[in-house]
Amino acid sequence: MFEKILIANRSEIALRVIRACKEMGIRTVAVYSQADADSLHVQLADEAVCIGPPRSGESYLKIDRIISAAELGDVEAIHPGYGFLSENAHFAEVCESCNIKFIGPTAANIRAMGDKIAARNTVKKAKVPVVPGSDGPVTSEDDAKKWAREIGYPVIMKAQSGGGGRGLRVAHNEGTLIKAFHAAQTEGQAAFGDAGVYLEKYVENPHHIEIQILSDGRKVLHLGERDCSIQRRHQKLIEESPSPLMQMKEHKNLRRDICKAAVRAAETIKYVNAGTIEFIVDDRGNFYFIEMNTRVQVEHPVTEEITKVDIVKEQIRIAAGEELPFKQGDIDDRIGKTYAIECRINAEDPFNNFAPSPGKIDLYYAPGGYGVRVDSHCYGGYTIPPYYDSLIAKVIAIGPDRKTALDRMSRALDEFIIRGIKTTIPFQKMVLKDLNFRRGRYSTNFVETFMAASRGTMQGV
Ligand code: ADP
Fold first, then answer.
1. Looking at residue 456, what is its pLDDT?
2. Does residue 373 register a pLDDT over 50?
């Protein structure tokens, strides 16, 4: 096992990795930008190295500075967390060439799934259904029109290197298609340095279901699904497992089939370490691959709670060459015994179109008690810098059934006090009271419909 690891990330995920390392007796090196000097991950790591100015392009994305910090700290491995360099194949290669283990998949794995068109074609060969779409990149307005006619409207234009909901545009006719084509190109170029775009059929009101994968290079196991359909602008706000969709009689084979497909997708590229295969599922239970995330995800605690597997520790063990200590049957036995739900608490104002709300937290009191977990890097007096994403805490509640988990989450959110900034907590509290949500009847259009219906209330609070 490694003796010392560098964490190439910040915020709650850096803390999450530090916690796993401490329990495993591994020493940690944190890196931080000038804006993060007061962050909890800096305080809790054994060592910390400042790697540059606040902007991530000059700090958390600077490969040479991170490698220098790793050499200075004399670490054996780097955990990249999520975002930043976690899906950068070049970074994985640089680590390996410096004799530092990259705690994640191989560079080839990352490349195979990083280009979303190539990923579609790869999994298609493994008989994993993909959303009907263009076979390759859409390169001109005429090309876009031709494909859209063939696929049938509505369609969704996507950035080839896209992620985080950026570079996605829905089009219902030729007029909006042309706008979508140029907008997705511009956004893809600005966000990912790649103007490549492609088209998919836009599946109306689908469920976003994703399958957590763990592979030690010998066998690929799945850890069940997460339902991430509660999204705003293609960004997840609430996740849960098991998915209410899987509880419906008509979908009794859905989990089995979708998990098998996910394992096939991972096997076909000889995937190693933790990853997630994302699908959209229509009302009839047809599922389609949309992409694979080749890293640990924000919502991984939901799966940890239902499977009792510490995903971050397993990532570290796999990187150190160890075998997974459980079998698929062990996981299957655990699925369905615990229900878990996660709310992503963002520093955003839900009553002002979710405008970012960075600044100083005057008072911070996190919920606790039986069945509640909070992953957060925040504390009273901490200032949320404006440079990074707005996630400030994740609340995870569990129960032996869905109702208990939901009631417990409501109780936890009631207890959560964050003063000085605006957060998404009031919005999530309202969602938890919604009858359709309570009944488990929701799809990815839930938030839009919910906001339209509760406009009066949202403005009044
Ligand atoms: P990103 O990598 O930016 O997160 P994804 O391809 O994962 O982009 O899609 C993000 C979200 O957009 C999905 O969770 C889903 O809600 C929606 N979406 C993506 N593709 C489709 C599609 N073909 N039809 C309907 N909704 C889609």
1. 65
2. yes
